[in-house]
Amino acid sequence: MSYELLHFRDSKMVIEEKGMTNIVKDTLGYVDDWLPESPYKGRRLKSSLEDCGWRDNGNLPIIEGRRYQYKGCLQRIAIEANFHAYEYILEGLVRLQLGYDLGKIDVGLLLLTGERSAKSPFGSTKELVIREVESLYPTISMPVAVAIFNIEASAANSMLPCEPVVEVHGHGVVPSSSQEVRS
Hints:
About 35% of the residues lie in helices and about 15% in strands.
């Protein structure tokens, strides 16, 4: 897999209590499978979330009477995403926080690209996410998980055979040597 899931403010506990751990992991894996091949990531994401049951509620408004909608929502876990710009982290967190403050969701799941400029002085994307989410408290106070997708690595490694993997993001997968694994 070419994503990393970071939990903040007890989001892992909330997801586990809802019995959604495997559904979240399966959804992220499903998104990761098509991500490198799709030039239309926004449309493809909606379609994938529909396939996984995250859009069964029809329109998913954040604020009634407005066109702002979540990408997906299932059992009061809302998904926001942007695979084009890391800077969407701020908008995504605010959109999720609105739903949390209005009592519509219990936890947010934000999907972001891990691609940033190689010249960035801010360290790795993971370090930056941790620093930004922690520094936004108390403005952003909800339980939230951030999935960072390494799109470039997915594209480069999408069909390369790898050594067997004992555990991939908690999936506990032990593939045979003939299976292809994404790293």
